[in-house]
Amino acid sequence: MSPTDTVTQLVVFYGPLVNPKSTSSLLLLPNSLLAVAANGEIDWIEHNVHPSSVQDVLARHGSLDTLLIALKHGEFIIPGFVDTHTHAPQVPNIGSGQQYELLDWLKEVTFPMEARFADADFAHRAYTKIVERIINSGTTTCCYYGTIHLEATKKLAEIVNSYGQRAFVGKCNMDHNSLHDYVEPSVSSSIDDTNALISHIRSLPSPRLVEPVLTPRFAMSCSGSLMTQLGAIASADPSLRIQTHISENQEEVRQTLELFPEATSYADVYDRHGLLGPRTILAHAIHLGDDEIALLKERDAGVSHCPTSNFNLRSGVCPVGKLTDHGIKVGLGTDVSGGFSPSILTAIQHASIASKIVAIQHPAEPSATTSFAGRQLPLATLLYLATLGGARVCGLEDRIGSFAPGKAFDALVVSVRGDTGNPGLWGVDLDEALNVKHVESKELEVWLERFLFTGDDRNIRRVYVQGQWIGGAERIR
Ligand SMILES: O=c1[nH]c(=O)c2nc[nH]c2[nH]1
Ligand SMILES: [Zn+2]
User: Fold this and answer.
1) Residue 185 maps to a domain
2) How much distance in Å is there from the Cα of 54 to the middle of ligand 1?
3) Ligand closest in space to the Cα of 313
4) Local confidence band at 424 (pLDDT 50, 70, 90 cut-offs)
5) Does ligand 1 come within 6 angstroms of the Cβ of 217?
6) Spacing, Cα 235 to ligand 1 middle (Å)
7) Per the omega criterion (within 30 degrees of 0), is the bond before 207 cis?
């Protein structure tokens, strides 16, 4: 089977599964059978199947005529990563301009690069490589910011669709406060281009897993009238998500409140323009006041935690534990190129460090055993944020983020074996590797932790979206 082959029969995987369950728990399920139907949905799952019983279980399910994929020792399956916030046109800038804070970085580094996407051919060449890289990093669902350019953003959506990635793609709305050559000429052109992109994406060929998303860049780059019209589009179309930034940098917060003096807070700016609701994805949310946290909860808006970017642009440390304690939906974002890595693995590592910084500076009371605030995030929470938590932020928790019959098979086959080229897990012997060996859940937990903290693209062997094999190290030759 090759990555581009379309699955036309039941495919059954045999090996260890890791299944996120809640903000604080996951299931470690060695020796599982997971069947994927031709439509890419999970048909059935069985746990604790001894190698000698595999054929019996297949027969019981009437599934003897299947493609059986038995994982090697040191391999396991996890749900695909959900990147709830990234900027595709900033990937070419990764690693440059690290000396700046947000507002100078936008002016000196980011807007000049984004302006280059006025050239649709450049956009096509760049986006082809960028989407491939993001898929091979294990991101099966991605919330993409494009630029202000309609044609370039259409290309981004077309490329994502042709790769078979699940995604939300948005054209940035920015009608003031930018460089003179990187701003939209009027509210009406911004709205017309937004509507044109929505129609274009919805007419892309099937199977289509890409959806449009409204993308007011942030309050500082949008007039009130533009945001009001975007809010009206969102309320007329209940399937449209909204993505934007909030409260990332102290100076940004100050200038935002100066631009919108009638608002009581940054969150209130979006709320009074009809942009804060259950379909809103807010990147950063570092410096929110308690009134804003309460408002986000009331509106059921989600937060994309982007710790790599927050450290890199010296923006601050998002109090993820506190947001989670308040019942706010949280996922992870790479926020390239504020973040210097397109991999959610890096975001996981930095989310762990961010939570440790909070725990050092504002430790939880020993009696507050059920709260996340002031504690380092455990492994289960880190994986949850990267998968099911991100799915909730995108309103896709019924489709993806964990494994259950009826959900889509968006998954990664991960390997911690030495033959990945990444040092891997010593003790997983190459010679015994071809035989499926009984795996204990304790061993699986060690593999998972080592992968999350030391893994990279080399360990992500196969990337599946809706049952289709669309990327991973096994196909890069
Ligand atoms: O991290 C960020 N990246 C951006 O491109 C951006 N634009 C506004 N605010 C932003 N924050
Ligand atoms: Zn961003």
Assistant:
1) yes
2) 50
3) 1
4) low
5) yes
6) 25
7) yes
Mean of the pLDDT values across residues 374-386?
A: 97
Q: Look at residue 5 and tell me if it is in a domain.
A: no
Report helix, strand or coil for 92: helix
Give me the chain's average pLDDT, please: 94
Q: Which atom of ligand 1 is nearest to the CA of 90?
A: 5
Q: From the CB of 248, is ligand 1 less than 6 Å away?
A: yes
Tens-place pLDDT, residues 54-70: 999 999 999 888 999 99
Burial 335-372 (b: 16+ CB within 10 A, else e): bbbbbbbbbbbbbbbbbbebbeebbeeeebeeeeeeeb
Q: What is the pLDDT of residues 383-410, one digit of tens each?
A: 999 999 999 999 999 999 999 999 999 9
Both tokens of 172, joined, read 């940035």
Q: Exposed, middle or buried, 326 (CB in 10 Å: 0-12/13-18/19+)?
A: middle
Look up the CATH number of the domain holding residue 70. 2.30.40.10
pLDDT at 430: 47
- Residue corresponding to tokens 């946290």: 293
The residue from 350, 374, 393 where one domain ends is 393
Same domain, 28 and 74: yes
Ligand 1, residue 338: give the atom nearest the CA.
1
Residue range 437-455, pLDDT digits in tens = 567 889 899 999 999 999 9
Q: Could you report the per-residue pLDDT of 97-112, keeping only the tens digit for each?
A: 999 999 999 999 999 9
Residue 2 lies in a domain: no
> Across residues 36-48, what is the average pLDDT?
97
Domain that holds residue 204: 81-393
Rg (CA), the chain: 22
CB 304 near ligand 1, within 6 Å: no
Whether residue 256 is found in the same domain as residue 217: yes
> What pLDDT score does 353 carry?
98
120-136 helix and 150-163 helix, angle to the nearest 10 degrees: 30
- Tokens 């390239």 belong to 336
3 state SS of 156 = helix
Query: How far apart are the C-alpha atoms of 420 and 203, rounded to whole Å?
Result: 40
Note every long-range contact of 417-422, with CB atoms under 8 Å and residues 24 or more positions apart, other chains counting: 417/72, 417/73, 417/74, 417/75, 420/458, 420/459, 420/461, 420/473, 421/458, 422/454, 422/455, 422/456, 422/458, 422/459
Task: Tally the domains of the chain.
Answer: 2
396 vs 141: CA distance, rounded Å: 10
ipTM confidence score: 0.98
Neighbours of ion ligand 2 (CB under 5 A): 283, 335
Q: Are residues 388 and 453 in the same domain?
A: no
Find out whether the peptide bond into 337 is cis, omega within 30 degrees of 0: yes
